[in-house]
Amino acid sequence: MRARTRRLYTFGIAAVLLLAAAGLAFMALRQNANLFYTPHTLAEKGLPKEGREVKVGGWVEPGSLTYSADGATMMFTVIDSSDADIKVSFTGIAPDLFREGQGVVAIGQFNADRTFTARQILAKHDENYQPRELRPEAIGG
Known about the structure:
Layout: H1 3-31, H2 39-45, E1 54-60, E2 66-67, E3 73-79, E4 85-91, E5 103-110, E6 116-124, H3 136-139
Parallel strand pairs: 4-6
Antiparallel strand pairs: 1-3, 1-5, 2-3, 3-4, 5-6
Binding site for heme: 125, 129
Membrane topology: Single-pass type II membrane protein
Family: Belongs to the CcmE/CycJ family.
């Protein structure tokens, strides 16, 4: 076999291996993407498989936050700029920044009745965050 043919085969095999590695990396990253579903996305694509742990995100609808009779479980509605919404229930202690009108990401799973049971709540804030102790209303100003 001539040197030119050997280089061509080597280049071809290297190209195939590189494409296979890139394809495997792309598939692994796509399956493990850590994105959250918005109400609009769920309305368009439907709910994920029942029992699968996912993240949902949006804003807590003002006036939707309620508590169970024993006060341990909170229920609220997650909204976005569309007409769709997600009913969420959470048992536990919510983060300090959690309140109506604020951004939220909930981690959990959907039930058969299309409600979302969260096991963890992550509150989002804007870049103007100030601790409670330094806010003007806390200081008396």
